């Protein structure tokens, strides 16, 4: 989605009523963020809307990008927010071999998640329960971590559910919304 460098368009202040709506959408979509919502979207702070190419809206607090949205699609968290609150989003893990493809903006393929280095929900190798017990459905927003790395490398939308991935073990798994090093990552709001 953001393969090339992007230049921000018009920046406008979000009305307080719209800000409340965004806040409730965020809590509905990501319920684990509730304890941190006052830090992320404080009621007294001014939220900004930055228009980006291809009808994408970026919501930012000062120079900190928080969420972005393509038209009426779900709100996707920016990687800086994910790095601050890593345990608040549904997460999957790719194996080492898939890292270079993800960081070049390719669509994530199922073998990167179903191989020995990958992790899906209910994985027997996931002793600490990091990747959850609940199977994820197609269309859900998911954070992608990389095997052997500390921080998430991508956030995107699942094309197929995790149960189907385990069963079929091939095909497209997740559409890249935003990844480390893309145009959105290097965008300066200062």
UniProtKB/TrEMBL annotation:
<dbReference type="Pfam" id="PF17832">
    <property type="entry name" value="Pre-PUA"/>
</dbReference>
<comment type="similarity">
    <text>Belongs to the TMA20 family.</text>
</comment>
<comment type="function">
    <text>Involved in translation.</text>
</comment>
<dbReference type="InterPro" id="IPR002478">
    <property type="entry name" value="PUA"/>
</dbReference>
<dbReference type="GO" id="GO:0005737">
    <property type="term" value="C:cytoplasm"/>
</dbReference>
<dbReference type="GO" id="GO:0001731">
    <property type="term" value="P:formation of translation preinitiation complex"/>
</dbReference>
<feature type="domain" description="PUA">
    <location>
        <begin position="90"/>
        <end position="181"/>
    </location>
</feature>
<dbReference type="InterPro" id="IPR041366">
    <property type="entry name" value="Pre-PUA"/>
</dbReference>
<dbReference type="Pfam" id="PF01472">
    <property type="entry name" value="PUA"/>
</dbReference>
<dbReference type="GO" id="GO:0003723">
    <property type="term" value="F:RNA binding"/>
</dbReference>
<keyword id="KW-0963">Cytoplasm</keyword>
<dbReference type="InterPro" id="IPR016437">
    <property type="entry name" value="MCT-1/Tma20"/>
</dbReference>
<protein>
    <recommendedName>
        <fullName>Translation machinery-associated protein 20</fullName>
    </recommendedName>
</protein>
<dbReference type="InterPro" id="IPR004521">
    <property type="entry name" value="Uncharacterised_CHP00451"/>
</dbReference>
<dbReference type="InterPro" id="IPR015947">
    <property type="entry name" value="PUA-like_sf"/>
</dbReference>
């Amino acid at each position: 989605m953001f393969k090339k460098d992007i230049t921000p368009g018009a920046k406008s202040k979000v009305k307080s009523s719209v800000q409340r709506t965004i806040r409730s959408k965020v809590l509905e979509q990501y319920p684990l963020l509730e304890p941190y919502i006052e830090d992320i979207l404080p009621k007294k702070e001014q939220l900004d809307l930055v228009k980006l190419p291809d009808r994408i809206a970026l919501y930012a607090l000062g120079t900190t990008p928080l969420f972005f949205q393509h038209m009426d699609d779900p709100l996707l968290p920016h990687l800086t927010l994910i790095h601050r609150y890593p345990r608040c989003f549904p997460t999957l893990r790719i194996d080492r071999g898939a890292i270079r493809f993800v960081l070049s903006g390719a669509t994530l393929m199922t073998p990167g998640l179903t191989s020995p280095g990958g992790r899906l929900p209910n994985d027997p190798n996931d002793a600490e329960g990091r990747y959850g017990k609940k199977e994820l459905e197609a269309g859900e927003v998911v954070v992608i971590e990389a095997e052997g790395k500390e921080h998430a490398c991508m956030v995107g939308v699942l094309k197929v559910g995790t149960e189907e991935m385990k069963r079929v073990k091939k095909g497209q798994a997740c559409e890249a919304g935003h990844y480390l090093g893309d145009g959105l990552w290097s965008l300066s709001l200062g």
